[in-house]
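#lab-general

N.A. 3:47 PM
ok so I finally got the sequence cleaned up, no stray characters, all 417 residues accounted for. can someone with queue access submit it? mine expired

B.Y. 3:52 PM
send it over

N.A. 3:53 PM
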Amino acid sequence: MKYIARVSILIIAVLSFSKFIPQYYSKIFSERVNHPITFYSEVLNDFIFRTNDKSFEFRYFDSNGDNYTKKEYSSLLPMLFSRELKIWDKYPKSIDGKEIPVDVAIRESDFLGIYPKSIDRSMRMIDLYPLFDSSGEYSTIQMPPDLFRINKKMEFIDAATNKINDNKSQLHTKLLVDAGFKFPAKIIAGNPTTKKQYDFGYFILDSSDSLYHLFSIKGKPFIRKTGVKIDEAIIYITVEENRNLPNYGLIVTDNGSVYSLLKDKYRLDKLSLGAYDPYNDKLKYYLNPLIISITISNNYHENIYISDRSSNALASHFYKYGDQLSPLYRLIYDTVFPFIIATDARSFAYYQEFRFSNNMIDAYLFTSLLTILYLMYLIAIRERDRVIFSIDLMLIFLGGIYSLLAIFILDGIRRYK
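B.Y. 4:20 PM
back already:
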């Protein structure tokens, strides 16, 4: 029994150390690394950057290294800073040879971010959604009294009593069946909040990967088969409820293709971008009357792709992120810590994940050295308990520095007692 208790305590200590020791090591030895914020200037037809030094002073410069003041920088991005330029009376009469009024620049611009965390969240949500009235009696969108789900059929459940509204459920189920819908639904995409100006309803992917549009007008349901069917697995759909934009939102597939779902007959426009892993990379989408900018980034680098509104490629930019740890401290980190437990940034629920060292050969050469040194220590102190002798050596070989610390702390407490 004493051996089970000892091993259990040591394993708990090892897991705890692998969570906190590398974390504090990184905090102590990390250096601040600036990642420049990059935009495409429609005035220069080139990329322009903003960064800040260690004194937190901002620097604005272009790809040639020419520096600008903050107002000059804003003038080089007239679509992005249209409101400021309007206040300063500096908004240009034409941009890249095109006359674009300031109200058009404001109205027809859009920002959108798709993160691994967002995709993970969509897969873990409880499948209950409010069906808003897109043209209700009030000036604001009202929360309905029930929520719907789509499994073997479409059901509306009263939020107060938890009872199913059979008449409403049967009506909507029949409309879906008549439209050719195959149950159950794989994805139900929309914005289930009243904090929006307009409601475009929901886009629903059925079990045969056909996309349907569901919405309600003055209490009457409408279901349209969009005709959209992609030969790739759709994993995420955004819905941008803005009457001034040409698209409903974006569709992301599991192999990294991204499509803009246009309001014109639900046509698809495949966006111009390079390698994109939706489960690990962040995607930032920026649209204005002249260009589409897509930034794909992860912990190591970012790629920026610029195209015109017809999705013709204009420019691209690659930037490799610097390591916060210097080469020496990174070598020590990868050698001393054979594994770590860290928060999974891709998880909406902040799950903990187990990560092995980037240099497993050096890491386990180091743990082997620790094992040999501890073996010499056990021989020197004449440890007679063969079970403790064997277990401790095995734990140090597997857990390295974490196990060594745990054993010495535990034995130190035991000797003190």
